[in-house]
Each structure stands twice: as C-alpha cells, then as structure tokens.
Amino acid sequence: MVFWYLFALHFTASKGHPLMKNLRDVLLITIDNDAEARLILMIATKAGMRVYRSAQRHGATLDEETGIVEFAQTVDLPCIWTIEMPGEKTEAMLRSSGFDLTIIDHHTYGDLDRVHNAQGARVPSSLEQFLQHAKITKTDLARLGFDPLLVYGIGIMDDRYVEGLRRAGYDKPMIESVLSYREELERQIDPHYAERLSAAELAWKNRQIHNGVIVYASDNQLSISRLVSTIAIQHNVESKPSIIFCRGGKQLFVLNILTAQVERLNRAFPGRYTWTYGGGHCWGLNNEKSPKNLWVTIDSKDLVDLLTQAE
Predict the structure, then answer these.
(1) 3-state SS class at 277
(2) Listed residues 146, 164, 182: the one ending a domain
(3) In terms of DSSP bridges, do strands 108-109 and 274-277 run parallel, antiparallel, or are they unpaired?
(4) Element (H, E) at 74
C-alpha cells in the first residue's frame, strides 16, 4: 500500500501570510529524500500550500506513485507542481485530466533532459526554481522564519556544490553554516544517519586512488554518496574526480568529471537507470532500477580506464 499524506510533521502553515493567496490553487507533489526536498516541504507548508509528500526514496518517479492521479482529482486544485519525480506517462495523464502541470527538476534521467529549459539554458536547483515559481523573495523567507542565505545555500549546494557557493560569494564560515544546516535537515529525514555516516567514514578511510581518480566503496546497504562528498569537502578534495560504489555496487556515482566523460558513460551503459547532476559534471547509476540482465558490475580500475581513455 502506498504511503502518502498531506505533509504535516511539526511544521505549521502561516495561515495569515499573503503568500497563501498566490499559492492556494497549487498542489505540490514532492519527494522528501534529501535536504533540498525537505526544505522545499518546510517552506511550502509555512506558505500555506497543499502538499503531497511521496514516501519514495532515491530514484523516485511519478509513474511509481500509485493513485496519484486520482488523489490530484480528489484535491481538485487547478495547478500541480512536481519536484524531481519524473514520469512522462503520469505527467501526460495529469495534463489530459486538465491540470496545469509545472515540472521542477534539474537532472537528466537517461535520455530525459530536465537540466535545460525550452530555450536550451541550464536551470538552477529545484529549490531555486520553486522559490521563483512561488514568487517567494528573500524578505518573504525571513518573514516565514527562514535564513535566506542558508536556504539559497542549500539550493546552490545541491546543484553547483561548494564551488557554486564560492562563486555566489559564500565565504568559508558561511559554507560551513550551509553544510551544518544540510546535516540538520538530513538528520530529520534519516533515522539511519549515524550508521550512514560511519559507513561513509570507513569508505573514506579505505579510499584508493587510480590514475588520479579517488575511489570509495561500501558494502553497507545504506547509500553513502552525499556523506562521502561532505567528508571530501572537509579534506579539501571535493573537486577531485571521484567514484563511489554504494551498497555493494548496487549504486554507482561518478563525480567531478567533464561533460564529455558523462556522455561517454551514457554511451557505455545504454538502457540502464542513470541520471546526471552536479551541474552536469556528475553521473549516477542505480542497478536496482535497471533491467536485471543489464546490471553493471564493472570494477574500479576498468571504470577509471573508461573515464581516462583518449577519445
């Protein structure tokens, strides 16, 4: 049975806030599986929006959200915004049902490009897009009880990482504050955060370097990619090309590579469940969402060779 509910937790909508009038016709359908998504939920709830929170974890899709079209019809609001839940079949059903659908995303999923807008320009993080669509200003954020610098920091970090924060004018103490806030949000979401952190620290301790690429591996059945990336920031190697084998190879993440290398990976592993992130310089693969006969079992040396080979 699919688990869903109108988002409540311990957040309270600001019933008298003028943003409610602007957003009262919108149903927000979103994940809640990382700091960015949690913050969108918090802001939306404070602004008085109606919110549907998916219980799907990493790799969530709208097509796997059973009953979502019927739920939207029951709520009967004219506008629907989705956050990082691709699903072209269900999106088409929502549109054909008469809903004005806005897709908020900044990733690619195989051949499905949600990194670029209709004009071909790169879009910012989902959090930044959400604020733009909702017309929530920095002043509004402060009125709702949020620190605008931290809010935008979470969005920038999700899309453009530490270098993006630096380009946006965040100094070292501000970056540390963003990272602390991200940890606070992720601890809210994840009851296994401490175990995940221990697994990430072990992967860091046992890391290897092949041809200039840092390789991390973990057999723990919790994904460690975000926490390994945070540890890399703490050790000033966050911009180095890296490979993270998670969950005994069920998930694979390749970070800080050229867009040409991302394209090479997509060509090498067609038909798998893959996505890009990190401003187009990171690539992920989820074997469990790929056809069983197409599971990737490449070892670290062969993967590094693939990344570093001459065209």
Answers:
(1) strand
(2) 146
(3) antiparallel
(4) helix 68-75
136 lies in the same domain as 206: no
CB atoms within 10 A of CB 226: 19
**What is the span of the domain harbouring residue 33?**
4-146
* Other residues' Cβ atoms within 10 Å of the Cβ of residue 289: 17
Per-residue pLDDT at 266: 93
Kindly state the tokens that stand for 231.
């540890």
Specify if 131 maps to a domain.
Answer: yes
pLDDT (0 to 100) of residue 20: 56
What pTM, to 2 d.p., does this model score? 0.90
**Residue reference for tokens 């920038």:** 156
Residue 183 belongs to some domain of the structure: no
Cα–Cα dist 111/95, whole Å:
21
% of the chain residues with pLDDT over 70: 93
The enclosing domain of 44 has a CATH number of 3.40.50
Give a yes or no: residue 172 inside a domain.
no
Amino acid at 138: K
What is the count of structural domains for the chain? Answer: 2
Which residues, at least 6 apart from 279, have a Cβ–Cβ distance to it below 8 Å?
A: 122, 159, 160, 161, 164
Q: Assess whether pLDDT exceeds 80 at residue 104.
A: yes
3-state helix, strand, coil in the chain (%, to 5): 45, 20, 35
Q: 33-54 as b/e, with b when 16 or more CB fall inside 10 Å?
A: bbbbbbbbbbbbbbbbbbbbbb
Q: Among 158, 127, 107, 149, which Cα is nearest to 42's? A: 127
199 and 66 housed in the same domain: no
Q: For residue 163, is it within any domain?
A: no
With a CB cutoff of 8 Å and minimum separation 6, the contacts of 169 are none
Structure tokens at 188: 């809210």
* Residues 94, 214 share a domain: no
